[in-house]
Design goal:
The complex is a heterodimer of chains A (934) and B (430). Chain A is mostly beta strands and 934 residues long. Chain A has a 22-stranded antiparallel β-barrel. The longest helix of chain A is centred in the N-terminal third of the chain and has 22 residues. Chain A contains 8 helices and 51 strands. Chain B has 2 domains: 148 residues, no CATH class; 199 residues, no CATH class. Chain B has 2 helices and 32 strands. In chain B, the strands form 5 sheets. Chain B has a 24-stranded parallel beta sheet that branches. Chain B has a two-stranded antiparallel ribbon with strand order 1-2. A two-stranded antiparallel ribbon of chain B has the order 8-9. Classes of the chains: A mainly beta (934), B mainly beta (430). At the A-B interface, helix 5 of A face helix 1, strand 5 and strand 14 of B.
Amino acid sequence: MKNIILSIFLSIAAFGFAQQATIKGAVNDKDADNQSLPFANVQIKGTNIGTTTDLDGLFSLSVAPGTYTIVFSFIGYETIEIPNLKVNAGETITVNQSLGAGSVVLEAVEVKATITRESESAILTEQKTATIMQTKIGSQELTRKGVGDVASGLTKATGIARESGKFYIRGLADRYNNAYLNGLPLPSIDPKLKLINLEIFSTNVVENLGIYKTYTPQLYGDFAGASIDIDTKDNPGNGYLEIEIGSSVNTNAHFNDFFLLNGSKYDYFGIEDGSRRPPSLLKAFRAAGLIYDSRRAPIYQFDTSFNPSERFGDPNTNVSVNAGKRFKTGDESRLDVIVNGSFSQNQKASLDGLDVALNAQGEVLQSSFFGNDFKKYEFSTNATLLGSLVFRSDLNNKFSYTSLLINDTSDELREISGISGENADNILKVRRGTFKQNTLQTHQLSGQHLFDNRKFVFDWGGSYSRSTGNVPERRQLFFTELSDGRTVFGKSGANNNSDNHRFYQNLDENDYSAKFSLDVNLGKDADGNFKHKFTLGMNVRDKSRDFRAQQINIFFDALQNENVNFNNPDALLSQENFEREVFHVEEFIRPQNSYKSDLRNFASFANFEFKFSDRLIVNAGLRVEDFRQRVFFAPEGLIDVIEKESIDEDFFLPSLSVKYALNEKSNLRFAASKTVTLPLFTELAPFLDEDINESTLGNVLLEQSDNYNVDLKWEYFPDRNEIISATAFFKYLDSPIEKVRVASVNNNVSFVNANEALVAGIELEYRQKLGKLFGSGEYSALNDFYLGANATGMFTEVRLNPAVTIGNGSSIAPTNTTRRMQGASPFLINADINYGKTFGKHDLSTTLDVNYFDDRIYAAGGNEVDDVYEKGFATLNFTLVDKIGEHFEFKFTGRNLLDPSIERYQDQRSLGREITVSKFNLGADFGLGVTYKF
Amino acid sequence: MKTIKLFFGLILASTVLFQSCTQTDESIDSIVIEGDTINNDNGGGDTPPPATNDVVILQGSITANTTLESSKTYELKGGVTVESGATLTIQAGTKIIAGNENGVFAFLLIAQGAKIQAIGTASQPIVFTSKNATPNAGDWGGLLLAGKAPINRGLTATSEVANATYGGTDPLDNSGTLSYVRLEFTGGKINADSEFNGLSLYGVGSATTIDHIQVFQGNDDGFEFFGGTVNTKYLVSVGAKDDLFDWTDGWIGKNQFWVGLQTSIEGDRGIEADNLSSNRLATPISNPAIANITLVGAEDGDGGNQAMKLREGTQVKIFNAIAKGFAKRGVQVEHDETITQLNDGKLTVEWSIIDNVNPFVYTGTAATATVDFLDPSFNNSTGPVTLTQSVFGTVPTTFNPSTLDPFFSNAPFIGAVSADDNWMAGWVRF
């Protein structure tokens, strides 16, 4: 070991003293507004010294002093020679060159097609040459497939499925996946999820989407499924400005009446003007050490009420503006500015649904009701602003500032009615309107510095994110239709004041992180490229959450037995009746309604990439994390807040990755690592999040799981744009986190550490020209078609200790102590077929894609109630993009064309029956969009 | 006018708040004792009750044997738990007050392995009540006993409130003695589905003694049994806003002399009986024997009150019961699994007067009742029966529960309490 370190230092010293000269520069694409041209070849004529340009179109060559001819070339482009370049010892000269397709004798049509797809093949080339296992999707590929956002883009990659905004990677649920923005961790805007909703990232701002399914020490140790790294575009070429306007309709939401509870004036724009808010008296009472009770001050302080009203109903709209500009600030220095702003609003509706909680006999639970009349309406908005400033002082030094601002709102109304589980003579009805607002602002400052001919690469970055997850107001009312035909407020006979309430939630999160890493490149091969790389780095993260919920319960008093109209409760719950004290409200305080939690992580890592030969490259690394996670809360029955350190541990996370090139076109790869999976704050906090038929309770005893991962991959690149690969993966999870039902009177779910889990699977990926598939010749009409498909088959098994309890002591009495992992699909497939062709001024691209996942466990059952599964379904989308000339682009999209029924069922094996417990559909969306490029 | 009322309230409250800043001494056993504490009224009334001379605060865990003396008044603050190994002795005539602190409802939990010895007398009962001047149901939590007797919700489970672990394998477990105890204004809310009952018996074993207990004006159920094997005598449930008596989780116990009286404000069922809602076939199956019951209902406006709902697969043997005044129906046997128990003779109501137009109702989905309790072999009738002062009155009968088991007293009559043998005198309030 010592010898290795010594020799590393010696070689560093040796290279430091060498008297080399440097030729560097940038290659631009004449045919694409002089945007940078990655993967262009740069060769010193008459030698074997050469390189390709990087993603920014930059290159750097190290040569002995002398006079050279330099050759620039790129497939399908002209080849240009620059002769008589003289360089002296220690000197660096700069050569910038633009390449175009114009002078090449090829059919214009062919060339154009090549340009569009070239970057995609570049991505595959990078995938092929990468020393670690990774999947990259470039912006070109995303655009070609008509993918407008990162989320849709991800589903084009192997083993990734998306359902209702949540990702399942290799069949592993959200808990196992993470997102990074430019290599720095990016928090989710939904506090219940780990992975940010990637729909908000327009493909316009994405340079690359990196999907890491095997672990490398640069990544945080919280890794099992995949980590997604979004690299924002930092090279706008000579500048662009484009405006996109689109509109769509949903078959459920727009072809039926659309209802919501009333709200504020600017809801359409995602701006809550303060109409939804707790009454100020609540604070005044609190300040006086009292609990708000309107009988002591019957002053009506509510702007919102309980009647449903017909709102919105216009087609969905989206607008986005993209602009980028490069400013040359000197010979080598330049400033790149990229701005992307977008706003969209969206209406969804689910009608004729079902929502019920059943017991082991398949009958409705006492605390529940048979909600066979289920309606859901949702109006959501998203506004995103992403800005990026990149300053290159010269070719070796880059400074970036990236800022991301997101405002996300959703206004949901649910109405459910059905026979009461408590009293079969009655029909229970509930109306619940929830307005949520999530915001995120992220500011990143980062830099990259190349020293000594790229021998040393220093990367640094810092990030501050602040996010909020607020519920400005939730309003819920129960009604009971009695057997005598009257409808009364509340659950008649069951007397639960909390059923009828206004609820307010504030969640604030601050997230600081920093990264430093130094690459030391060592040893040169015959082509002058470095052979080995040693990387040392550090990461620091500090994240804290402050959560507070407030609730006001409604007491019907004199209205208790009044006949009420389900669609007009306001007639009775009026300001007048409130002021006359016919009914009243009281604050409902639970100490568990507020908590604080935080985590901090000091990590350092080292990785050594060693190229044994042209064929064999080995990466070996170690990451050490000093990790602590805490929750501050008041346990049940205690008045004082206590601190609970759920995790305080050092994680030692070794990793190994081997790449062996079988031949020019295929590789064999192997990776092994140890990683962890951390619980979410929401899964730890003892806050009881009450939904209509199910409540979720965090578990402060929850700990991380230790994951042991092994991957073996074979990949074959038959041609440009083509790939065939097969991966076998195996994971052993020590104490994995699982969502389970709790053995209490209520229908509560929580999270526990199971004993262990095994995951074993196979992934297959295939992307080829259709012509090849059918064995037709070099050129055939079928070659305008690309077929892509990827499939994952997976076996999972988790074992639970039946005696395991959650933070409040509840046992879980698991019905099955050995079963599939929660959230893991045994099978999923993504497939797409793409047709791209240019007709005169029209550059046409159409894609039909389908995703399917197989049934997976939604929540594991207890007390002989069997596990509830999410039923698999297929999503079919169609996209047609027509670029007309230089300025216009038209897009037609059809999403969720099959409009499947989205169902959950209880697999009650004691009855030999699968019983549907939840059912709804989302409707299909049809949209039209126009983009104008200036 | 409204504003004046508010300001008055706030000024008053601030005054109370400032006065209540007193010195706190913490003892090693985390029993906090404060002198001259002024009650901080968090609920209904506009004026705080007059300060008592000596209010001793009980808070947190009680880990050593402790005695509460009748000369003092005690206040429960937050959840007070008597931990395993400790015995809490309460002298006859002791008064314990309780409320809530910023939403933390006070309760007294006798944890598994701990004991309570609360033995009052008819003239000197032990009283747990609200600390508020104008008390209301739900002002504080309630009294909970958790034992190690078998339950059917897993080997052990956790109580819906107070997070007490209960259940086990010792049917002869002993949680102590409760005698001549009155629990008033219980039933604080925890969340949408959870609230405190007056007296909650979680997996309590048969060596525990429970007699002469009243729950008065509870926000949820009066008495609730969650599994276990505990036996009871002389229970009085008055004005529970939900059910007067309730059982689930596989309770098996012997019981005699139960009185239940609803109020017209709110109430649901006289007896609500479950085996286990989430799995009706879970074992052990709830199977108590109860003799001499008087249940009196009241109309609270929804027309939905009923005397007994026997459901979710429970078994039961009921003798010598009177039920009257329930708007909807008398006895309902609900769910197929419960009807199977009925047909198998494991659920019976005998020698009883169900004074109702719908005395017996059987509601199953697939199963049909092959037995009718109005069949002469069950010796039931529909009355009418006349009671004085709401609950007093018995009807002589030939069946004597003492023939069932030595636990049962000699009582050859239908009903729980007769005017000439008023075992409620002195310690029960209405």
